[in-house]
């Protein structure tokens, strides 16, 4: 996670600000999302966090530390959420709600989980995971941008879904085909990413 966040800053921001200003920029958003993470995450995401907590505590990690560590992966997303919030001039809680709702709407957790974890594919795997994270950011921005007069994640996503009805149907067909395949290789997943890019 340290590597992912470091690469995010190097690639996204080419940071020129002093570190104290960078921390001041992101800290309120991190606090806002972390304090309400349970409200934003889907039932599936919350179940995954609970499972991670269980595995840690089973190995003797203190409960509070297990809880904090299990939530780190979700909190990595705050970097994108804060920037989208500022870019689109919408509140961090709303941007977070849309961002995490898209995970369930587009089954992005499943897509990320299909990326193979073999040594020789490590570079392709890392690039594809970055692509999914970047697409999730772009999709969140698109949802917020489409209906600036609307508020509430559900209402915003419903409006966006209606606008992209045909592209969403095509993406779901590709997703269904992938789920019925015996194995999902990187070539197949790249087709899914192409369909997601149409939505962004």
Characterise the protein shown here.
With 200 residues, this protein is mainly α. Helix content is 80%, strand content 0%. It has helices at 2-12, 19-35, 37-40, 43-58, 63-70, 72-76, 78-88, 92-106, 108-113, 122-146, 153-163, 165-180, 186-199. The radius of gyration is 17 Å and the shape is globular.
What's the total helix number? 13
Largest sheet: none
Could you say which structural class the secondary elements and strand pairing correspond to? mainly alpha
Order of helices and strands: HHHHHHHHHHHHH
**Termini distance?**
25 Å
The portion of residues forming beta strands comes to under 5%
In which range does the helix fraction lie?
Answer: over 70%
Shape: globular
Mean pLDDT: 86
Radius of gyration: 17 Å
How would you summarize what this structure contains?
Helix content is 80%, strand content 0%.
């Amino acid at each position: 996670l340290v590597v992912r966040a470091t690469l995010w800053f190097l690639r996204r921001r080419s940071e020129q600000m002093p570190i104290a200003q960078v921390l001041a920029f992101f800290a309120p958003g991190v606090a806002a999302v972390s304090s309400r993470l349970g409200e934003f995450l889907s039932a599936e995401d919350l179940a995954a966090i609970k499972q991670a907590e269980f595995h840690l505590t089973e190995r003797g990690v203190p409960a509070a530390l297990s809880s904090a560590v299990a939530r780190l992966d979700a909190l990595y997303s705050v970097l994108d959420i804060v920037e989208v919030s500022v870019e689109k001039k919408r509140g961090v809680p709303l941007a977070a709600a849309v961002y995490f709702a898209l995970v369930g709407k587009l089954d992005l957790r499943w897509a990320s989980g299909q990326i193979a974890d073999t040594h020789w594919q490590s570079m392709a795997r890392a690039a594809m995971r970055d692509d999914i994270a970047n697409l999730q950011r772009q999709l969140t921005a698109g949802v917020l941008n489409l209906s600036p007069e609307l508020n509430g994640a559900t209402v915003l996503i419903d409006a966006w879904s209606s606008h992209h009805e045909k592209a969403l149907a095509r993406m779901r067909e590709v997703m269904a085909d992938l789920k019925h395949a015996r194995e999902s290789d990187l070539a197949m997943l790249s087709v899914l990413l192409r369909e997601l890019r149409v939505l962004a």
